[in-house]
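Write out a record, focusing on structure:
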Amino acid sequence: MNTLHKKISFGLIALLIGFSCSISKNNHSTLHCFQEKGLSFFDPTESPWLDSNKIYTDWIRKPEGIKMVHESFKRIGYQKIIDYGYFWDWSSDKRLLRERIDSLIIAFKLDSINSKYYREFYQRRQMENNDEIVYTTLLDIQKIIDNESISSTPAFVNDTLVNLVNIQLSEDSLNLYIATQNFDYLK
């Protein structure tokens, strides 16, 4: 992170701390603090265990969770996400990503799968009852990698997720205007 990014990040943190709580002018003893809203797709504070991903992993394994993330990523643009290396480090070798997706698609249709990786992958998907949505998602991603145009289904897009990922993806082009927009959205 270069010096400008550090200064902007520090400034945003200072602003968040400074604006998060204020004392009421009418009643000096009342402290009004910013109260965070829960995310519409999952709430990381709901987990009953410290440092646990249980809530997140349960949510993302549900077919509706996978569908929402996939449709939101289509809105953002998978190519931007892949190029950024956001979830996978496939940006350096997209051929490997393509091969993995092709193999997963082929393995889905097989009655018996010799490869332990692909067999166990689909056994887990079947146990979680999300094998069909994973398969259709992989088909879409395969088309996207082939530069086919795939549009998102607005009813399944989560604008909060789209905005949060776009904020992350904009870090390389961060300037005062973008930082201010991001801050306004986040507050």
Remarks:
- Residues 52-178 form one domain.
- The radius of gyration is 21 Å.
